Protein 1
Amino acid sequence: MSDVAQPAQSETARTEPAPQAPRAPRRPVERTHHGQTFADDYEWLRAKDDPEVLAHLEAENAWTQARLAHLAPLRRRVFEEIKGRTLETDLSVPTRQGGYWYYTRTVEGKQYPIHARVPATGLGDDPADWTPPEIGPGRVPDGEQVLLDQNVEAQGHDFFSLGSFAVTPTDGRRLAYAVDTTGDERYTLRVRDLVTGEDLPDEIENTFPGAVITPDGEHVFYPTVDDAWRPYRIWRHTVGTPASEDVVVFEEPDERFWVGVGLSRSQRFLQIELGSKTTSEAWILEADDPTGEFRPVWTRREGVEYTVEHARLPGTGEKLLVLHNDGAENFELVVTDVPARPGQDGPPAPLDPAAATVVVPHDPDTRLESVDAFARHVALGYRRDAVPRVGLVSLQDVTGSPWDVREIAFDEPLYTAALGANPMFDQPVLRLQHTSFVTPATVYDVDLATGELLLRKRQPVLGGYDPDDYVQRREWAVAEDGTRVPISLVWRRDAVTLDGAGTRAEPAPLLLYGYGAYEISIDPYFSVPRLSLLDRGVVFAVAHVRGGGEMGRRWYDDGKLARKRNTFTDFVACARHLVETGWTAPERMVADGGSAGGLLVGAVANLAPELFAGVLAGVPFVDPLTSILDPSLPLTVVEWDEWGDPLHDPEVYAYMRSYSPYENVPDDASHYPRILATTSLHDTRVLYVEPAKWVARLRAAGAPALLKIEMAAGHGGVSGRYARWEEVAFEHAWILDALGLAGETFEGSEASAVPASNAG
């Protein structure tokens, strides 16, 4: 595979018009549960290795290319715009760990980053010792050691993904890394000697991301998955021994739980964390005793979630900080003891949660999300008013409870603040990241002694980008039950005209994005590719619907299980609000969502097709009932806590059937907006068959639907930055066409649009 970008390669060679749209034959398979029978006409498309199925998928790709051939010039333009705004030869802000500064850098024409380091000098309390070296883009830094060049590792593969990447934190002499070259998220784990640069004989197949290496570099702990693609075992590998001698140190039999392993920032403890959608548990083991036995911190209790962070508190010594939701819906932070090792004096394992001391109490208006402990400070990640924030606690100032949390604030109405890479326990600065819809990704170091923000880097945007040319704003829609739902908007100032009251003077083309599941929040973020939409007059909006986590844990609970329909009706309410307030019009609005967000926009297409000109569904979970009824499929049992168990509960079955996009396509869908579904053949999270079946049924019902399937990728789509830009350009060109802007050329406040074609 070439490393050099080939934008929109061989477009004309692949856009021969197909004689007609693919029509998947109807071969009904009856599914009966709880006295209800559903005849599934297209379940036969699940046979991934069947030549007829593969031929049908290839025909779908050919038809999509043919129907969208007129967009090839626009795709090329958008690709070149993304490329032209990106500093292709660049590097990340170096991060200090031990005696090295670690960073990644990219090179123009190369698909993947290069992981490298340079030696560091001085390691003390002086923030000057923690000032990253000034490494200018475009040159190889003096003394650089390349740890892993992903471009080299990817040679000969159509797909490449790096999973685990862990360097021994003390001396930096070994690297444990894992790669996937098919997209199915089964990673091969290897160990590299960073003194010689050579891989050791160690090679372990079919691992899951998240391996850690012990501080002495002698052991690697890693997770593996069961047949349902659930990480359920943690193994210990001794470097230099065959994988056949690896030892299982933890196994979780409950199919609802995922298991992971990590190393505390203090390097004192190895930590196993396991969790379902509603319950979690943590086990610890001293890192200097890697062959010892892990022990639990708190006993697992259904409905209680907690995470553990090791800390050293003045006057009290080693403690554990536990962030939990036991009787605290939005979580609270407590301090507790470290359970004693087996056979030693001290508090037993597991600990009694009632004996813990509350240091950051529950707040119904603030959702605590993370805690990070350092030698002299504790950092908290939390959200309030749908804005993610960071607060600091100085341990030197702690005299009791509650702790005084000092928030690091930014002068923007909408923004995202989060911790960056901070691998060392005893450091005088804290790496912080900040961004918004108009502010490019920015890296600061916070001087913990003074609170000063030290700017380290702001994402370069070539071509004269000025954040003052763009505006971000919050709107509120009212849902069916009276709940106020936040909407975030961003637009180019001189491309969207507001009247004296601050509302739209005339409807604008608008892209409405939504997700709404797993308590995942769609926070403000900057996007270079999005500029190609904004500069053509498109307003970008995010509907922060229930099921996400933007407004706290209740917001999530009100959009899952038997309240899942709130996610869909919230999105419809947001769309209607944007129409009624003049921001847009139905013929000028496209809905966009991926994965669980694909379920969202698929359900919305059935609920309110009249509100949209187009629906873009990426790797969409549009046949949820079929998937969640089959415990043998990847992730099914894990998902029951999110969606319910339709296999055993007739009420859940009936409820899910009422909103499943695939099962609710009407016999006549000719009035539907145009629909583009994208997927990947090797996706293990949302199988390709779901959008393939959905598009087949939509087309049979007369809906203008297209399917684009990557034949060598997984859930995240194609790998490689240029390939990803091509994919984004493809989607953006389709969005612009659906909005009537395929011929748009933005120049100041003047633009000319051509009508959208009836592609689909």
Protein 2
Amino acid sequence: MQDAPPTTDVVRSRYWLGESFVVETAPVGEVLDVGVLLLPPLGYEDTSAYRPLRGLATALARAGCVVLRLDWPGLGDAAGSVRDDDLHPRRLAAVHSATAELRRRGVHTVAALGVRAGGLLAIDAGGLDAVALWGTPPTGKAWLREERTFHKLAARAFAAPPVDAAPLPDGALEAGGFYHPPGVVRAMEGLVGTARLGAPLDHLRVHGRDGSPPAPEWVAAAEAAGVQVQVSTTTGLTDVLEDPYRSRLADAVRDELTAWFTARAAGRVSLLAASGRPALVLPAGATERVWSAPGGAGELVGVVCEPAGGAAPGATWTVFYNAGGVRRSGPNRLWTETARALAAAGHPSLRLDVRSVGDSAGVDVPHHDLEEMYSEDSVEDALVAWEAVRGLGAGSVDVVGLCSGAFLGAQVAARRDVRRAVLFNGLAFVWNDEARAHGMTSQIGRSLFDARRWKRLLTGRIDARALARAMVDKARLRLDDARARLRGEPPPDDVARLFRQIRTRGTEVCLVSSAGDPSVEYLAAHVPEDQRPSLTILPGVDHTIRPVWAHERVSRLILAGARSPHAR
């Protein structure tokens, strides 16, 4: 798939509709009289599928459709906490609200793509004229089984919870860093999607999972209900759900879905204006609103979260940076939850998408390698966010980031006045030859038994020549270091120099690493012990801090250093 060029033939707008956060993508002028809802999966799969669904929305809009991408209540930037027990009916209400909104604005046919659990929610909500299901099991029980299996695999990356960790409530489910409360589990256990087919639904399209055909129950139920059904055997779901950094939408799937949705149209209409709200009111009066600013690749997008009454002049603002390809809500939605906790305590914040991540302008396909996430271009985007909060009245600025977000936070702290930098699992604070070599080889080195990564290497998805060059560079750098030590000349260290520069600026640096994470070894190798910033070790968690029991502890680490809103 080629990188999508910049375009002015579609218009994107963002707002809250009911409890959902919505990204609308539409063509300029009249639209086809079919509107499309893109309903993402739940949990970790939602994080991975965000970029592919953004690309599909662009393709559909270029074909003439108005498209609404929804964040489910309790996920992304939508209202609610993932621990709310009544999320299932609220998610069905989100589908109802979006369907009603499209009909109010003049669309005659409302169709939806439901990915995985998103398909079950689409069918359970009803009221849709056409639905495409992608990898959707026929029942909620089947989906829950898959979530439990996924968690068993994911949990291999972290240890058992400590004895003082609060256990999950009875009936709740943890799945790879995301929490499904008992009410959601009960609702899904009782959901039989195939029993919910019927009017006004008249068209159903079913895509299976890669390597297996669609569940035959969907086809039989559709035929019994008098619903026209079409089956697709095109693969591509694995690429969509793989991980946020590498996820992609296959051209064949994009083209098939675009053709199927546009075939539902009978003409063109002029849309009425959207009725969505520009801000979300949170408990206790805190608010969130969409923020945007010009960036080097086009529009930068983020979400500002402010306490009740707005941010006080001179307040300390917190800027949250992306973790790799994860959008601004953060790993396991940690940045959204923490930003709202900060607002409840009186502290404003901005959650940023750097270019090509989340909703910021750029490309809709994965980066060829890690270089882009650690590039000077991304640093410039991070600096735009710092300048923005100063322009909003910040007296001082804190920065928070994980992995490549930790790199961005450190780079900003070295160039601008930053009061406090909370940096999680930073694998490279300076992008140099060593970091480049390590970053490339780690794609294979940490996953020798991961068949998917070997498949990417053997099929050209990982550049074998670049990998070989990186391995040679890594060996050369180690040899150069050894020679310097033999001469009694410690090699110059850019990382140590960076932290000296940050310390000279008066920034409080709080490093946090998962026990056994490569970030611990990286810090020890580059910064002498007497010069290292404070380091907190989180036992029993993986690189992206997935265990649910650890999330509150991470938020507390960020909240602990926040000042009152009137502090400089």
Protein 3
Amino acid sequence: MKERKCLHINKISTVMPKASHSTVKKKLYTFRQLIIESEKVADEISQIVAKLRPVDAMAVFTTVTSNKSFLEKAFKKSGDVTFNEFTTFSGVKVLIVYIDGLVNKDLLGRDVISSFIMKSKEQPANTLLDSKFLKNLISAASVQETKTMSAVIDDVLNGDTAMFVDGVDTALLIDCKGWEKRAVIEPDTETVIRGPREGFIENIRTNTSLLRRKIKNRNLVFENMSLGQQTKTNVAIAYIDGIVNQAVLGEVRRRLNKIDTDSILETGYIEQFIEDSPFSVLATVANTQKPDILAAKMLEGRVAIFCDGTPHVLTVPHLFIEELQTSEDYYMRPFIAFAWRMLRILALLISVLVPGLYVALQTYHQEMIPTILLLRMAGSISDIPFPAGAEMLIMIVFYELLRESGIRLPRAVGSAISIVGALIVGESAVNAGLVSGSVVIVIAITGVAGFIVPALSEAVIIYRFLFLIAGTAMGLYGIVCGIFIVVLHAVSLRSCGVPYTSPLAPSDQGVLNDFILRFPLWAMKKRPEAIEKNNKERRG
């Protein structure tokens, strides 16, 4: 613009023969000063407008200086936000903005900066004023255009690179993401003997690609959204179109869109906002770290929720029977899978009921204990200063303390603390006469049984205490009443409108072959009707 105006002034001076050379130089200097002053005024006006208008409505400026000034204020001059300014061979200023640590610098230097400079070398200066032409000068895989500063800020925070060219009111958003991430390894909480060993990690795009490798279907859909006013966490809803229950999918969308909070740091945050019964001991939203488990659940019509920054993926609806099933049940022979499921049910009952039953029988129903065993128990508890209920409560609290310390300490130290602590505390308590040996045995059996159903570990701890209190207060009558209340509560639960105890209540004859019994895969032709009512056939 300056050169054009100067050339225009020189042409005017050539057609004015009466004007002296000094006069022309003075006028030319005056015009140049006016141009400089007008540019300063324009920058000041744009900065004033930027202060008055919100960021969401702010448009990209036409000058690199204004864009840089605005973004420096928007990012509070943070040290990790990098501004790289350079000039092309034709004299056009270019500004690159990115966050250090979120981009691949090799990719940025090779496919963006170097490519832009070399390809623009042979282009006229006026062609660099067209944003669509500028996209062709960049070798990156994904280049998007935007005219708003809010989109620029959001994409830069997500790891993209923003490019501004002097004289263009459009910003280019270039995908050059590249940050450190954990390798895909087997999750510690869902170890298997047979089956895939890969697990989700903290990167949402890696997780979605792992699922895509399991389900190579064009009907697999991912819907992206951002949650958290401050964190703006990337979240994705995944489902298989044609199989998913549309009512459940619509309910999941509605609940996610209603989330209004500052931060979403893990799927546990999302779970607490979307679950049906937030005060229930039983979880109505499931989570997994394994792609094969997630794929199997989605093929039955469930919806998955991915969250960036965590390896745990949520699935809804969630049924109680899922807690007693594992992925290995479908990789082994049917009768072996049935035996393992029966063992898990037995372990669940032992872990929850045995402490309360022991106290109830010893306190109220001694006639139900065999005589020889009753005599030995009487001899062991004759010197114990506490009643049976208090004795059991003390040992359960000690056991939970040891278990929690073993989890929180480093793995090498935690396992040693758990084993040695259990031996020392148990033997010392018996020798000191605080508890009887039979109570220590009951707690040991209860603890081992609880490890068989890790998915229900939180509920097992609460119910164990509740049944202990019921057995201490009312004996077997309290235990029976407790079972009745727990069953009523479970039957009343819903997960996104789906009954929690399905396919048992309400009954679904079509999928009872995968409830406790596990029929051969070729005989399992139906999807759960409670989850998917339209496409019931697995081959449909």
Protein 4
Amino acid sequence: MNATINGRSIEFATEQTILEAARADGQFIPTLCELADIGHTPGTCRMCIVEVSRPGQKKAQLLTACDTPVEEGMVIRTRTTEVRQHQRLQMELLLADHNQDCASCVRHGDCELQDTAQFVGLQGTRYTNPEYHAGRCVDRTSIAIERDMTKCVRCQRCLAVCRDVQGTDVLVFSGTGLNAEIGIRDSIAMGDSDCVSCGQCTLVCPVGALAEKDDTEKVIDYFYDEDIFTVIQIAPATRIALGEEFNMGYGENVEGKLISAFEQLGADVVLDTNFTADLVIMEEGNELLSRIQNGGTLPMFTSCSPGWVNWLEKNHPELRDNLSTVKSPQQCFGAVAKTYLADRMNIDPAKMRVISIMPCTAKKEEAARPEFTMDGRPDVDVVLTTRECARLLKREGVWLPGLAEGKFNNEWMGLYSGAAEIFGTTGGVTEAAVRTVHYAVTGNELPAIDYEAIRGYEHMREAEVDLGEKGTVKVGVAHGLAAAKKMIERVQSGDADYTFIEFMGCPGGCMGGGGQPRIKKNYQSFWHERQQAIYKIDKEAPIRQSHNNPCIQKIYDEFLGEPLGKKSHELLHTHYLDRKVDVKHDMKTIWDEIRG
């Protein structure tokens, strides 16, 4: 079928929208509300207005491109004077009740609303009044995420992701007119709700209405305090995403440049979370073997994704015994840094500050959990997401592409394996564990070290691992909380006969973490290139199994003793809580509120 856009003939498929056809032809139409790859095209922002003439019609119509199918013989114009006038008017209306304190907004310089206003040629606003948004909610009760409804443009992207992608359904549309905003189900504070801090809503919000809590000021204070010894840990998924914030390629590994960047900022030691990912594999692999041999609770669930752990504690606390007791690599790093590393470097742990660079908003909440403290001190002092890290570097005048390649050179915690690196993608924890468990059981390395059976993009996957004389074990993988929910239902119904299940809270695992750089279109496709970069790092690593890391062997020989031993249990293992939110509906109160 054929139509024209701006005088250019195009071919299109049945049910294809004008917006989809224009993109396929390389023609730009601005939008603020649609997320095409998850089917979210509500037409609420009205910025994709185009002029459409149909055969036989005398007068052209102005229609929204995101939800209008292309028809045979359509003549579509996207840049006429009338279209641009309507777009500018619509932008003025969007800005009318929008908090325009842009200089202090976390999205300053990276705001889709600002970009769209510039595209339509907005020269000023006539209708802005601070009273329009004064009564809307600003909720800072969550440790990880801020909800500032004075900036909301009601695009409903966050609703679609929370409901349709993650299946958590915490966010709701509430209020009417100028008081309409994104609220929390049951009208409770975000910090008290079923929100698991996965941060997927912050990835898709076009403005600063939903954003990670910004801790960059705290980190700057640490760097400029001469009495503080700063230790940076860099997570595997951050090094192949941070470059996107500096106009570098998707999936480009900036590990060396990031080391140099933090050394330039004054960090005392820059190390890698991958070191403790190797440590986690040693503990978790041995825990799995112990459960198999001693009749422990199976299937064993991974516990390194805090968004997933939050979800289980809030939705299925009865399954807490299935969770591995091993802390996440982030928390293990903090515990080891403030004991083992502090002792070896002769540093007072009270003066040490561990700063995590993570792809995850939920890591902020994890670091703040009271059970992750020693002698009243937190294992991890502050967490910056990948986006915050980029803002920190730019604020301090550090331009990443121009830096030299640094190296991790600490003799105690300076090496990591390829197995640790693939922790950053869905299926990676399972594959890393399989490499070490296979060796522990058989005494031989896994013949095919790239365990393709567990790799892929499907949100639920499974495979069988041959352990020689010990038989086979069945493993499962689920990434994204909607998939996690389905996997748990299978476990509870008895349909999932797994020994080990890896759960990741975010689609794609840490590749698509809530703290990663945003991709304005195709929300769920961007992590594929990042994933391939992770596998490339693993493939080129001189050490590819956690148990072969000489720094891991050293820490057990000199400090921990043995996996699952007394010292490692004290530092590297934890327990979980029943955090189920019980909202009791008082019907009289509800009806009183409705009448009011």
